[in-house]
Design a protein that fits this description.
3 domains; 314 residues
Amino acid sequence: MTFMAFVEGPITDRYLPTLSEAHRYTVGNAIKNHMMPMFGGLKLQQITRAKLDDYLARVRQVTKEKGQSEYLGFMRVFLKLAVEWELLSALPNFPKVKVPQADIPDFLTREEHATLLSHARDHEEFTLLLFATDSGTRSGEQLALQWGDIQSAQLVLSRSVNRNSVASGFKGTKSGKPRVVPVSQRLDAALTALKEKRQAHGQLCLDTDLVFGSYIPSVKALYRRVVGACKRAKIKHTSRHGMRHTYASWLISQGVPLAHVQALLGHSSPVMTLRYAHLIPGTGDNVRAVLDGLESYKFAQRRAARWQRNANGA
């Protein structure tokens, strides 16, 4: 099958309808202006690393690194679907584009978090933001959450949205394993109030109804919600994933064992969890308080003070 037939057939019929209108417009422009001129007449098996390098060179003429990465991402999705639909035997090797990272803080301090919550527009947004930092879930897991997943002050996380969009359906968690996360009292109260408010407006809130994905269509839309809230609160905005960092940082700074945090985040390795273990300002004070409370440390202090007195007397 040629790339043109692939796009005009399965991609148009099965993939594009799952996208939002804006995303579909962006992908359509990439197909028309860049993909078809490069790959239209080629068979899917003829799309090699060399051809993808030529495609990247073409894209570099019209866009910066972020756009280049996005256009390559479109091609990667298309060819992954071709493999999934058994139209292509294997995915070719893709070139890489190094995108400069924006200066976005990886976590919020407690003061910034309080400011953010105080500037929520309504209880829906308040619960949305609080859930991100009090559950440590990934964005896709938050959008896939159903009311039935909230059980006895804990979350049972077993699914995520597929292809970052609620319309695309659901898949398992990133690790492939379900996990249980305890719910804080303030989050439990916020979720209960949210459910009661919706029911008062005629929504049933059945166990299979989505909590957040019912009105937020995609991970990108969730990210925009977080950024917008940070701007209104006049704090340097973090990403939605940065709020997951915030959750992990708070737990580790308060002495929760790394293995426990690893399980709550759903990481397969503690090395990954350590990347989330940012030091929050004030952690040094906690460390000093712990050390000062140890008997061995108090003994060392007394011994040091005695040596100091002896030295002064000499």
